[in-house]
Amino acid sequence: MSAHTHAQERWATRIGLILAMAGNAVGLGNFLRFPVQAAQNGGGTFMIPYFISFLLLGIPLMWVEWTIGRFGGRHGHATIPGMFDELGDRKRKWAKYLGVLGIVMPLVVFIYYTYVVSWMLGFSFFSLTGGYFGLGEFSQVAQYLYSYQDVFDGTIHGGWVAVVFFLITIVFLYSVLSRGIAGGIEKLALIGMPILFLFAFILMIRVLTLPPAVGTPAEGLNFIWNPEWTSLSDAKVWLAAAGQMFFTLSLGMGTIHCYSSYLTEKDDVTLTGLSTGATNEFAEVVLGGTIAIPAAVTFFGVAGATAIAEGGTFDLGIVAMSVVFQGMPGGQFWGQVTGFLWFFLLFIAGITSSVALSSPAIAFLQQEYGRTRKHAVLMVMALAVALGTLHLLFYHRQFLDVWDYWAGTFGLVIFAAVEIVLFSWIFGIDRGWKEMHIGADLRVPLIYKFIIKWVTPIFLFILLGWWAVTEAVPTLLMRDVEDAPIAYDPETIVYRWFSRLVMLGLLALGLYLIHQAWVRKAVAAGASPAADPGPMES
Amino acid sequence: MEGSSIAPFAWFFMLLSMGSVTVLTAYCYIRILSGSDEPVESDAPGSDVPDS
Questions:
Q1: Pick the residue with more confidence: B45 or A114?
Q2: Residue A529's pLDDT is what?
Q3: Considering Cα of A85, then A88, then A93, then A94, what sign does the dihedral take?
Q4: ipTM associated with this complex
Q5: What is the pLDDT of residue A526?
Q6: What is the chain B residue with the closest CA to A22?
Q7: How far is B34 from chain A (nearest CA, A)?
Q8: Of the candidates A498, A500, A497, A474, which has an alpha carbon nearest to the alpha carbon of residue A487?
Q9: Which of A253-262, A303-312, A341-350, A391-400 has the lowest mean pLDDT?
Q10: Which of A130, A136, A272, A506 is the most buried (most CB within 10 A)?
Q11: A94-147: per-residue pLDDT in tens?
């Protein structure tokens, strides 16, 4: 086996690893996106394609990503370019360049996602201080949020308020990430995840015991779970379920690979991987499904909640919930406490995902360019501040929407399609299956060998093809089409192009850095043959 | 909570979904926390690549 060139850092405990991986997966989407998706795509029947996607897409990809990560770590790689290079037996020079997706996409998502996470910190503060209390109407709270998001709008908040919370979030991330894997990321997960679940349970009980208002909590549950049988024949519903599976498990990002590269070669990936997937599903289905929508239906009725949900996850998760907290029984004090629990819960869910999203870029700088961890973290945080400023300035110009669609939605499926082909067909399913079972605590049913080789890739290519035709092409051409992922607004076209160019610039920079890293390796190998670890072992 | 507002099939899907993810999560954590499992051999069924 080649020398451990990067893997001096390790996870300290198995439960810490599981919680860190679960923290990566459990994010804002579990509590905001899932209930809206379920309610809009057939209610109870949505769970049929959802669980089928979990079994055929989510779990197989999860095991594949964990396996690639541990395999890469064993060969001295914590990031995707090196891992893909190894999967291609180092003979396929193009493989490492495809790995740029696993560095740049999580970095792009990290930058805008961290900005959104900082809103949750801001609203935790506003809840505790009663900032939005007294704004009883939905439209007033919406204006409160809009003013916060727009640094040029000083009607309610000064433009600096959002900047301050963004910088606090960045400093917090620096303090966690610079402490390393076990000392920073794992400790955050060990403290943050139990708090997240505790807060979620308290909120779930509070919401389910709310007295009837315009509606009832039971009507909210009925709104989410009541089946529409005709939706099962709608392809959009199946694709929505598959898409949700990607977002919720953080697949196709490069973050799972990076975290699992810090495993030892004999550490289990099958049972541990399944555990993180299960933890995420519990947070999503049990907790995520019983807070925001039932609360919104109780206070706004089914018709009102439907209209709010159609306005997007932030209308539901921030605006509607802020109205709900103002009307909580027990007076303003309990409303403020409940509001804090909700927004801080979202902050924890988001910050643990942010930590994971930044990890591939940090590991790449450490490993390929010999930076110390603190220096690498500082560089990534500086980039996040620089580019995050663009989001602060142009949030209402759809700057963020462009990044969210290409890196945070469509890019995930492209990445997953690349990795499953590399794993199943180029590395080979037989070698992959054997690799997966090294140190395994759970024997994966043999049917999954067939699923990973055939079913998951076909499923992915159908998803990719459908999205390419129905969404990606119209979005690429900026056409005015109904239900486009980015709402058509002719006034923002300059900003959308600018947003694309910045993202493409990051992609080009990533490709250049990968190329240079391999040139440096070749030079080092030429100067000292012993530096080249040689062909991989199987 | 007024249970009568939830339709029978909504109950069915809700309990089945929540129940299945809860059982799966509990199964995983019980196995991990019990720690009694010997790792399965890497030469798992379906692994027809010999050790090198």
A1: A114
A2: 47
A3: negative
A4: 0.90
A5: 83
A6: B25
A7: 12
A8: A474
A9: A303-312
A10: A272
A11: 999 999 999 999 999 999 999 999 999 999 999 999 999 999 899 999 999 999
Question: What is the pLDDT confidence band of residue B51, given thresholds at 50, 70 and 90?
Answer: very low
Residue A84 to residue A419: CA distance in whole angstroms: 8
Q: For residue A89, what pLDDT is reported?
A: 82
Question: How many whole angstroms separate alpha carbon A17 and alpha carbon A406?
Answer: 29
Chain B residues lying within 8 Å of A2, measured CB to CB: none
User: Least CA distance to B27: which residue of chain A?
Assistant: A275
A181 secondary structure, DSSP code: I
Check B44 against A272: CB less than 8 A apart: no
Joined together, the tokens standing for residue A64 give: 């594949």
The Cα–Cα gap between A44 and A46 comes to 5
A47: in domain:
yes
Range of the domain at A456: 14-531
Contact of A486 with A79, CB cutoff 8 Å: no
Question: Percentage of chain A with pLDDT > 70?
Answer: 96
CATH number of the structural domain spanning residue A215: 1.20.1740.10
Q: How open is the CA angle A421-A423-A425, to the nearest 5 degrees?
A: 55
- pTM of the full structure: 0.92
**A8 part of a folded domain:** no
Contact predicate A290/A216, CB 8 Å:
no
A430 to B40: CB separation less than 8 angstroms, yes or no = no
Q: What is the pLDDT of residue A269?
A: 97
Interface test with B, best of A206, A441, A442, A448 (most B CBs within 10 A): A441
Cβ separation of B6 and A218 shorter than 8 Å?
Answer: yes
E strand spans, A51-130: none
Nearest to B5 among A216, A437, A443 (CB): A216
Mean pLDDT of chain A: 92
- Nearest by CB to A217, which of B1, B40, B41? B1
Measured between CA atoms, how close is B32 to chain A, in angstroms?
8
| Per-residue pLDDT tens digits for A322-347 | 999 999 998 999 999 999 999 999 99
Residue B40 DSSP label = P
CB-based contacts of A73, cutoff 8 Å, min separation 6: A6, A7, A260, A261, A262, A263, A265
Rounded to a whole number of angstroms, the distance from the CA of A436 to the nearest CA of chain B is 8
Q: At A465, which helix (H) or strand (E)?
A: helix A456-467
A389 burial (CB, 10 Å; 0-12 / 13-18 / 19+) is middle
- Report the length, in residues, of chain A: 538
What's the domain count of chain A? 1
CB atoms A217 and B11 under 8 Å: no
Does residue A4 belong to any structural domain of this protein? Answer: no
- B13–A43: do the CB atoms touch at under 8 Å? yes
Instruction: State the Cα angle at A171 between A166 and A177, rounded to 5°.
Output: 120
Domain assignment of residue A202, yes or no: yes
Whether residue A72 contacts residue A257, with contact meaning beta carbons closer than 8 Å, is answered with yes
Task: Please name the residue of chain B whose CA is at the shortest distance from the CA of residue A278.
Answer: B25
> Token pair 């998760």 is at which residue?
A317
